[in-house]
Amino acid sequence: MDGFAVAHLDEIDERADGRCLFRPVRHYFGIAGFGITAWTAHAAGDLVIDEHDEDDPSSDEELFLVVRGHARFELNGDQIDAPTGTLIFAPPRAKRIAFATAPGTTIMAIEGTPGQAVRSSRFGSMGFTSG
Predict the structure, then answer these.
(1) Model-level pTM?
(2) Cβ–Cβ contacts within 10 Å for residue 38, how many?
């Protein structure tokens, strides 16, 4: 298998950032072109995406994919029901947060800044290595 890599999500070690549990997908594979992280809530009601906004107009846009379970997102105060398979796009400046409504909810977050190479996020300095 030269030039590509394969892993099951559960093979990537789960980490904690003090608020939510996540799997550093980008670091696991050594991805340099975009940010990608899987966030997991083990119980219904758990925070799965912490509240944040990308208040700099040149900051990240994010695409969330509910991979497992069921979540409730809030974007700029709007409530969004998000069962497995739901895609949600959050542009820069959108305030966002998500809670699990089912145990084991996992959300994949893909992020990048339009027109820019990926920059180190808050997870870039945590010493993760691939595989």
Answers:
(1) 0.83
(2) 21
